[in-house]
Write a structure and sequence with these properties.
By secondary structure, the protein is an alpha+beta fold. The protein has one domain (3-104, 134-182): archaeoglobus fulgidus dsm 4304 superfamily (archaeoglobus fulgidus dsm 4304 fold), CATH 3.30.2170.10. The chain is built from 6 helices and 9 strands. Strands 3-2-1-4-7-9-8 form a 7-stranded mixed beta sheet. Helix 1 runs parallel beside helix 2 (87-94). 41% of the residues are buried.
Length: 189
Amino acid sequence: MHPERLSHVVGFDDAPFARSHRGNVAVVGAVFAGIRLDGVLIDQVRRDGANAARTLIEMIRGSKFAQHLQLVMLQGIALAGFNVVDVFALNRELGLPVLVIARKRPDLAAVKSALLTRVPGGRRKWSIIERLGPMEAIAGVFVQRVGISPESAGVVIRRFAIHSSISEPLRAAHLIAGAIATGRSGGRV
């Protein structure tokens, strides 16, 4: 699909949680039709678990937005700590391109070390990150992508980056997730 036609997007982010927290963490999807917030999806994933991709797939498929969505955006490759999203499964199961976006490039050596020494299923999680490859600088942010070209990713990111370098679907998901967890929104995405 031509990047100018990618107008129905969902952006996902997780709610903040205490370092000592164990169990589930809220995940919010902000659904946009163009630059208009069209809906919100909420569920939970396990802290450092392995259910992120499955949960996102079920959230999208179970929503009234599923038939119109054209792109999935993630605020980083992992939710709820080290619950790494299998973006290849997300792309394959939903038939949608996936953009992983970060404001700054992550320290992959530190991520690898943590996954391989402290996280259950760390080898499988690291293999997803490794297969995805390093983040690329595109449109003022860092991106990993599946099913979308760098040029198309740049067009989409710039179109949805209205109030900051972070796209509105991710910014809205971040604000909503923060409010769910703390009673108020705020903070930098």
